[in-house]
Amino acid sequence: MDVQTWTYLLVGITFALYIGIAIWARAGSTGEFYVAGGGVPALANGMATAADWMSAASFISMAGIISFTGYDGSVYLMGWTGGYVLLALLLAPYLRKFGKFTVPDFVGDRYYSKTARLVALICAIFISFTYVCGQMRGVGVVFSRFLSVEIEMGVIIGMTIVFFYAVLGGMKGITYTQVAQYCVLIFAFMVPAIFISLMMTGNPVPQLGFGSEVTGEGVFLLDKLDGLSQDLGFAPYTDGSKGMVDIFFITMALMVGTAGLPHVIIRFYTVKKVSAARVSAFWALLFIAILYTTAPAVAVFARTNLLESVPNKPYAEAPGWIKSWEEAGLIAWLDKNKDGKIQYAPGKPFEGKLTYDEKNRGENGERLITNPPSDGPNELYVDRDIMVLANPEIAQLPNWVVALVAAGGLAAALSTAAGLLLVISTSVAHDLVKKTFVPGLDDKKELLIARCAAGFAVVIAGYFGINPPGFVAEVVAFAFGLAASSFFPVIILGIFSTRMNREGAISGMITGIVFTTAYIIYFKFINPTANSVENWWFGISPEGIGTLGMIINFAVAFIISGLTKRPPQDVVDMVEGIREPEAEGEELAVSDH
Questions:
Q1: Would residue 384 count as lying in a domain?
Q2: In a domain, 334, yes or no
């Protein structure tokens, strides 16, 4: 069977599985819709958390970034992995013991203020929408290549699937769907990695293979990749170009942003007790590590195969995958010197956004680019989001492996999208409507509002998936920066500081997220030509500015709380109670009060 037939088969089977699970585990109450009734086993919750955590950015885009940036891409590995450790050890058990549905719920009760709850609600929705548009973009990329539909139509199909099982199943349906999605995505990621590691180095363990010698060549794979890169004019793959300050700030923003992501935090409310939250955090970290330790190997394999199979080859003799991804609009060739060969070198192949002449073809059958060409020798554009998806084709693996990776990419994107949409719906129904405006709202009406909010959120997420502000991992990095600058300080101080009051928390959240948002918008949208290290504050890129926003948040919160009244005694007692060890066998109900 060809790739498209295999893709229809495997994607159809997995989608049927997800929908079947959603029907079987549909939510019948707000407790089941928000936190799956608080009774998910630790192992299942660990798998669901891993799927929720490993989004399209982890599955599709992280290895793509590393394959293009080499050493500099390690910030994503360090930040996202370290951030989960921080969340599991420092925040999750305490938040679970507090027993609230959502992060705005925690903020509202801890800081005894509807205003604080409302500010946290706005932050949660803003962060979630920023994050989810990256996931929908990932869905569109997969569909556009493997099912031969436009990216826009791919996003719409993904929206429909997510709408069905997120709105029907709520957290209960999403949790067990994510268990299945984790199995699909990890199998899809590891199978081609193992195959390619064996083919290139003879080692079946990818984590060891990319540091081994190339079979029959007597040279280490990374040394070979450095040589290939330098021959084409690129910097050595294993050298870094980012400044140490920016590396630190990006890594820290990703770490503390993890600890402030509402869709990950809410997963720890789905288990029965604090000890189960700790155990599920351990399982999730183990499941996450399988993919994260493999991603650098996948990046090296893909980059090496790309540099060996494409540059200086006549377009007419280019491998089939080049032309397939070209049709999807994610690879482009502009024959600047009219020699019919693909020249790949540093620099942009053309100016501005990729646009095509839809009526005509070039002399070699290539799609014609209407953008005026830029200076420099580079003729090839490769969207970095395709490297994991194209990797099996580049390595000439069987068609079923290619289709399997497509199914895995969809599982990764849809699992996280569902978790984020649930955060948006619960924030609107529970924190905005019930806790702020209609305190007497009954359970049935609240559930209806939550489902309507989820449906509305799906539509907005789809729009941003069709019109994304950047490639997948870049967009996700912005979401982490926003979470770092808004939620992390208010959560950590809410748990460990009895002096922090509502005035300090509200001022800190507003200042942190406004500063970070303004910095990102200025350099990415208002004045993108100034987006360079010479113009950044202290050499900090937009991807890392969330760390500075977090520092500003902490500073403002401490100053304002020091100048205003101490929290009431009952709040102080509540904070101290959160940190008390749980009794043996103690189960904690999720509070709705």
A1: no
A2: no
Amino acid type, 575: V
Asked if 204 and 217 touch (Cβ cutoff 8 Å), the reply is: no
Please, what's the largest Cα pairwise distance for the chain? 79
Residue with tokens 């330790």: 293
Q: What's the domain range around 438?
A: 3-306+394-578
**Burial of residue 529 (number of CB atoms within 10 Å: 0-12, 13-18, 19+):** exposed
Of the candidates 53, 487, 62, which has an alpha carbon nearest to the alpha carbon of residue 281? Answer: 53
**pLDDT class for 550, splitting at 50, 70, 90?**
very high
Query: If you compute the radius of gyration of the chain from its CA atoms, what whole number of angstroms results?
Result: 24
d(CA 219, CA 212): 8
- Say how far apart CA 433 and CA 121 lie, in whole Å: 11
Please give the tally of structural domains in the chain: 1
**Residue 123: C-alpha distances to residues 32, 138, 482, 521 (Å):** 24, 23, 8, 16
Residue 521's Cβ-count burial label (10 Å; 0-12, 13-18, 19+) is middle
Confidence of residue 250 (pLDDT cuts 50, 70, 90): very high
Mapping DSSP onto H, E and C, the string for 266-282 reads HHHHCCCCHHHHHHHHH
In a domain, 332, yes or no: no
Q: What is the pLDDT of residues 187-198, one digit of tens each?
A: 999 999 999 999
What is the rounded end-to-end Cα distance, in angstroms, of the chain? 57
Q: What is residue 220's three-state secondary structure?
A: strand
**pLDDT, tens only, 315-326:** 888 888 888 888
Q: Is residue 127 part of a domain?
A: yes
CATH classification at residue 248? 1.20.1730.10
